[in-house]
From TrEMBL:
Annotated signal sequence range: none
Topology with respect to the bilayer: Multi-pass membrane protein
Species name: Chryseolinea soli
Name of the protein this chain belongs to: ABC transporter permease
GO molecular function, one term: transmembrane transporter activity
Localization in the cell: Cell membrane
Gene Ontology cellular-component annotations: plasma membrane
Chain ranges of the MacB-like periplasmic core domain: 21-239, 432-629
Keywords (A to Z) from UniProt: Cell membrane, Membrane, Transmembrane, Transmembrane helix
Location of the ABC3 transporter permease C-terminal domain: 288-404, 670-779
Pfam family, any one: MacB_PCD
């Protein structure tokens, strides 16, 4: 009966002051909705790759590489490693190598399509828990003629899963493969993305260099037997490559290490050869933001409830006079806070349901609210109770402490401790908001910088076309036809896209090089007209020329490489790659071949107009893209009819390097705006509190002739001082956090003073707009009404 009375009282109070209730519930609802969205995103990130049955025993092998005084880390390992490890160490139950996602052409039943896939050993489906719909994990990739298809690919070519098993599929118009298994389409919480798998030996045959222990390009996965001591095995693996002399040398040493596979998605960056971070920094950052937003919402509740407390003074006085103990009042007020939180929770859930589709588009995920999971409701119920208790605790203690005599006289005053506590809450609240504003500005500027910075080549109006099948032998004809096509200016080729070049080698020598030093230099095979097609600036010498036959032994280097070689007059100076002696024919200005996360490395270009594979680069005239693409498709179909064309735009490929940053930028913008909006509700609460406390003072000042401007300054001055303190306190913390985030980029913006000035001005302007309405309302009120009780 008592709790029912509490509920009825709380309900009447909610209905009595609808504007207060709406503001309070909307603030909490927005805070809970934002935090819940972040929590769902964080849980999804942490759940990537954690669904495999062998999760506790599934590991990736990485290398710690030592050379030239440098220590690097990499997941790239020799192609022979996976099978060799299983043969040597009885602790390893299963192993497989994997390469990289490749787009290949398949034909069956008169259908020709390109599909993305990878390679795996016969252990693959014993290692990873990708459900098989047809076939068995023991026979799925048993021979080099086997191929495993996803459900989607099986339905594309054969109409159904059942019809696909045992069928023949033409691969790259050069081999017939048998469908030995069909697996379920990969789930969204898998970092692996492929629609088919070929036998690992097929990869080794196609890439003969992978049979050398000195080449590192494949991934290695292992599953340990039950009860294996991971630490002990890790120690054994550390110097494993010493048994393969061609895997390292006196100047290059590689040590192996193990990382749990499900941790790789979030922890994939290396520092001094050790795993040091990755996407986990974003997970941690947004986890903190979720806490910030909830704290801001709770502070709002405290401010708004306390601001409204004067109106409940007589109610509290009556309850105390008739015998209500303070404990009972505290329970009542905390109960009211929990009730408001429950309403906010319902509104917050509805908001999440409404915005989740848009949120999934922004984050490129498929997050769903787990309504069918009991744990979800238990956690949310606990959140409601916790937030309600935290939000209502201070107002409950404060309201229950009213003196009933003062309440009846209308002389309620607040002590210095209470006032300083409230001011501290406002400062803390705006500290969090200003930190979010600074962070949003820095993220926005860095993302804008990486999107607009000149890379040293012109990525606009540049198209890449992969060389498929026997097309490599027809490149000269293709190039000649394209150069006669309207809208096409230049054509060249390269062995990989500029954003994917990772061909490092230590096999470069020059005059004066320390023979004991291992120096990693990136080498790229290119065709004629490469520099003009790419728009790269030539500093010295010349480009490769078909008129000069000796250019097949010529090299073009970038500025960073030239500093390494220390040639003052480099043109004509000797340079040797893999024992092939040649000379430097040109020097180009440094240009970026990877993301701005890494520094520009020494680079050398070698001529290979007749390379097998690679990419054709096509420079299109501005404004004639559609015309040029139509010509490219027509010529391709005539020369390579069995392979569908696949083309990509250079600027779009570059943007893919920063997909994570773009998502983070959008999320930062949205959550910073929400945090600011919720903070403004808190300011509104403090303004209500201040004006109600000083109603009679304002009335007296108006009667004595005080102008509205001076009265406005009187009421806003204190709040602006609090916000200024928040700006001063938040700025160094924001600088420290964002400077740490920018340290992941080799090329980045500077965090300048104007960013903090802008953030502070935004906070002040938003605050003034927020408090102006309530302040002006108080100033324009009839002073007679406020002084009538006197």
């Amino acid at each position: 009966m008592l709790y029912r009375n509490y509920f009825n009282t709380a309900w009447r109070n909610l209905l009595k002051d609808k504007s207060f209730s709406a503001i309070n519930i909307s603030g909490l609802a927005l805070g809970m909705a934002c935090s819940l969205l972040i929590v769902l995103w964080v849980l999804d990130e942490k759940g990537i790759d954690a669904f495999h049955a062998n999760d506790s025993r599934l590991y990736m092998v990485y290398q710690e590489q030592h050379y030239d005084g440098i220590v690097n880390g990499s997941y790239a390992t020799p192609g022979l490693l996976a099978e060799d490890l299983k043969q040597v160490y009885p602790e390893i139950e299963y192993s497989t190598g994997m390469a990289w996602t490749t787009s290949s052409t398949f034909e069956a039943n008169g259908k020709i399509f390109k599909q993305d896939g990878d390679y795996g050993s016969s252990d693959f489906f014993s290692i990873f828990s990708f459900p098989l719909l047809a076939g068995t994990k023991e026979t799925a990739l048993k021979t080099k003629n086997d191929i495993a298809l996803s459900r989607k690919m099986a339905e594309i070519f054969f109409g159904s899963v059942e019809a696909a098993l045992g069928q023949s599929l033409r691969y790259e118009n050069k081999a017939d493969l048998k469908v030995s298994a069909v697996f379920e389409d990969l789930p969204p919480n898998s970092s692996m993305k492929f629609d088919y798998l070929l036998n690992w030996e097929t990869f080794m045959d196609e890439q003969q260099w992978s049979r050398s222990w000195g080449n590192n390009a494949s991934l290695c996965f292992i599953v340990l037997k039950e009860g294996t001591d991971v630490s002990a095995l890790n120690d054994k693996l550390h110097n494993y490559l010493d048994r393969h002399p061609d895997a390292q040398s006196e100047t290059f040493k590689a040590k192996l290490g193990l990382q749990k596979y499900s941790e790789q998605y979030l922890h994939s960056e290396f520092e001094n050869g050790k795993i040091a971070g990755g996407r986990i920094q974003y997970v941690n950052l947004f986890s903190v933001i979720a806490v910030f937003i909830i704290l801001i919402a709770c502070i709002n509740f405290m401010n708004l409830t306390t601001a409204r407390s004067i109106k409940r003074g007589k109610e509290i006085g009556v309850r105390k006079v008739v015998g209500a103990f303070r404990g009972a009042l505290i329970r009542q007020f905390i109960g009211e806070a929990i009730l408001i939180t429950a309403f906010a929770f319902v509104v917050g859930i509805l908001l999440v349901v409404a915005v989740l589709p848009v949120f999934n588009i922004i984050t490129q995920k498929q997050i769903q609210l787990p309504f069918d999971q009991g744990e979800f409701w238990i956690v949310l119920g606990a959140m409601v109770l916790l937030i309600g208790f935290i939000s209502g605790s201070y107002p409950a203690l404060y309201l229950s402490g009213f003196n009933p005599v003062h309440a009846f006289k209308g002389t309620l005053k607040f002590g210095g401790t209470a006032l300083w506590f409230r001011k501290g809450l406002v400062v803390f609240q705006f500290m969090l908001s200003i930190m979010l504003i600074v962070g949003t500005i820095v993220v926005y500027r860095q993302v804008s910088y990486v999107q607009s910075v000149h890379l040293g080549y012109d990525r606009e109006n540049l198209i890449y076309v992969p060389v498929d099948g026997p097309f490599a032998k027809k490149y000269d004809v293709f190039k000649d036809e394209l150069l006669r096509t309207p809208g096409i200016k230049l054509v060249s080729r390269i062995d990989n896209r500029p954003t994917r070049i990772v061909n490092g080698t230590g096999g470069v020598t020059w005059e004066g090089k320390d023979p004991s030093a291992f120096i990693d230099i990136t080498q790229v095979a290119v065709g004629y007209d490469f520099m003009r097609t790419m728009g790269i600036e030539l500093l010295q010498g010349r480009d490769f020329s078909p008129e000069i036959k000796s250019d097949t032994a010529g090299y073009i280097v970038n500025e960073t490489a030239l500093k390494l070689f220390n040639y003052k007059n480099p043109i004509g100076m000797p340079l040797t790659l893999w024992g092939m002696k040649g000379t430097i024919v040109g020097v180009v200005k440094d240009f970026h071949i990877n993301s701005l996360h890494v520094e520009i490395k020494p680079l050398m270009l070698r001529l290979n107009e007749a390379m097998n594979g690679g990419w054709v680069m096509i420079r299109v005239e501005p404004g004639k893209t559609n015309e040029a693409i139509a010509g490219i498709k027509k010529t391709w179909k005539e020369l390579n009819p069995y392979f569908p064309i696949d083309y990509q735009f250079s600027d779009q490929e570059y943007q893919k390097l920063y997909a994570s940053e773009q998502v983070i930028e959008k999320l930062s913008n949205a959550f910073a705006l929400m945090a600011i909006f919720i903070s403004c509700l808190g300011l509104l609460g403090l303004t209500m509190f201040t004006t109600e406390q000083r109603t009679k003072e304002i009335g007296i000042r108006k009667i004595l002739g005080a102008p509205l401007v001076s009265l406005f300054n009187l009421l806003s001055k204190e709040l602006l001082i609090l916000i200024s303190i928040a700006i001063v306190m938040a700025s160094p913390i924001a600088w420290y956090v964002m400077n740490g985030w920018l340290s992941g980029y080799a090329y980045k913006i500077d965090i300048t003073l104007w960013i903090f000035i802008l953030a502070g001005l935004l906070a002040i302007v938003i605050a003034l707009i927020t408090i102006s309405f309530q302040t002006l309302k108080a100033l324009l009120a009839n002073p007679v009404k406020s002084l009538r009780s006197e």
